[in-house]
């Protein structure tokens, strides 16, 4: 049960976006992709979902090559993609309604309770705050039974306080809701706080420059505060790479 | 509430000026009747106006209904098969340079003097604003949202049912509101050319008898019908989102 990227390269409009990206994401792990802005982090998720095709290399899930648009992943794009004419209940069960699967109302109620959304289940998206909308989008991703989750900067548009609360909420989810997750983020702290592994990508054309494993006994804000040297190390890595990319001579 | 009183106040003021001008200038009633005379005509010939209004409304509603159905289906087909869109949409736009009323005599020749030519005129006048607004709204649906649905396994028809149609219906209803105003004019034009009943027929008949107050009374009925259809259309839009989209009433 792994996601494999082998020598993946992508060129769009004569622009090299990815170059020789190789990585293996193990079953059950939470891996963050972090890179300078515009380096092609989101592109990797689009390649996995089949929205884009690689120019070279291969992507595979459990040994099966990804050849086009597929439903292997539960994908949360940068925008929350909530449908404004559907209420919270209808938005979070979109997968079930598309695939004509029965909706387990008990489970839906349980998840809405965990996410603090139960009183708002019949609200339309425009009636919710930014943080609530993001939780609805995440809940929709979680109700998708796929074994793999792809989260593209899910908290990018939130203020610092809401962002922190959402990170705590995601980290505190019960074990049965956790899946193999690939998170794209530009926030180094967020990557450290949430991940078992961080893949640091270079500036465009992106490739993996560092693979950092994180195995804390206890993961909390105090532990995160103690990771300042690691944060500085990653920051320096990204900065040096961005500068090198901007001034190739 | 205030913003509703302002146009009402303006209307009362304009009617007052009109009444005053007609009274002071002693304008003959066959040139310009006073608002009071128009109101009297409305009351005295209420029965006739009501009967003819019903005929015009009936033609308008049938024509508008057919135009809605045609525009809805053709816009969807053109959106699904872009070759059809590229082949026919420019022709549709060019066809609008032709004033529909010039087709009236031809329609009478082909379809006789009954309701058919009037309904066809209504369809021709109502179809274009709906299909243009709906087609453009369908075309503007974000590709990212479509792809997102496809990553959840949505088939082409589900993309339409869950995303494109609900999104596009905003455009559809915008076009429908315009068409609801046009459709009464379409029926009136048809009745001017050949009819035995309807507000257009009534207007020609009373005009020939120099009963201009009744012409104005008929115009008032046309305004009421157009406004009424516009309001009903807005009501339909609200109902659509509550019942069809959200699948609930509250």
Write the layout of secondary structure elements.
The complex is a heterodimer of chains A (249) and B (250).
Chain A: E1 3-12, E2 15-25, E3 30-34, H1 41-49, E4 56-61, E5 64-65, E6 73-76, H2 88-92, H3 94-98, H4 105-114, H5 130-143, E7 148-152, H6 160-171, E8 180-185, H7 188-194, E9 197-201, E10 208-213, H8 221-225, H9 228-246
Parallel strand pairs in A: 3-8, 3-9, 6-7, 7-8
Antiparallel strand pairs in A: 1-2, 1-4, 4-5, 9-10
Chain B: H1 2-25, H2 35-44, H3 46-80, H4 82-95, H5 104-111, H6 116-139, H7 143-151, H8 156-193, H9 199-208, H10 212-245
Helix pairs in contact in B: 2-10, 3-4, 3-6, 3-8, 3-9, 5-6, 6-8, 7-8, 8-9, 8-10, 9-10
Task: Please give a structural write-up.
The complex is a heterodimer of chains A (249) and B (250). Chain A has 249 residues and is an alpha/beta fold. Chain A is built from nine helices and ten strands. Chain A has a six-stranded mixed β-sheet, sandwiched between helices. Chain B is mostly helical and 250 residues long. Chain B contains ten helices and no strands. Chain B has helices spanning 2-25, 35-44, 46-80, 82-95, 104-111, 116-139, 143-151, 156-193, 199-208, 212-245. Classes of the chains: A alpha/beta (249), B mainly alpha (250). Chain A binds chain B through residues 49-51, 69-71, 73, 75, 77, 79, 81, 83, 85-87, 90, 94-95, 97-99, 144, and chain B through 144-145, 147-154, 158, 162-163, 166, 241, 245-247.
Give a short synopsis of this structure.
Chain A is α/β, with parallel strands linked by helices and 249 residues long. Helix content of chain A is 35%, strand content 24%.
Give the name of the CATH architecture of chain B: Orthogonal Bundle
The profile of the biggest β sheet of chain B is: none
Please tell me the overall pLDDT of chain A: 88
Number of helices of chain B: 10
Beta-strand portion of chain B reads under 5%
Query: Which sheet architecture does the biggest sheet of chain A show?
Result: 6 strands, mixed
Strand order of the largest sheet of chain A: 6-7-8-3-9-10
Structural class by sheet pairing and helices of chain A? alpha/beta
Number of domains of chain A: 2
Q: Span from first to last CA of chain B?
A: 25 Å
Count of individual domains of chain B: 1
Level of helix content of chain B? over 70%
Number of DSSP strand runs of chain A: 10
Strand content of chain A: 15-25%
Order of helices and strands of chain A: EEEHEEEHHHHEHEHEEHH
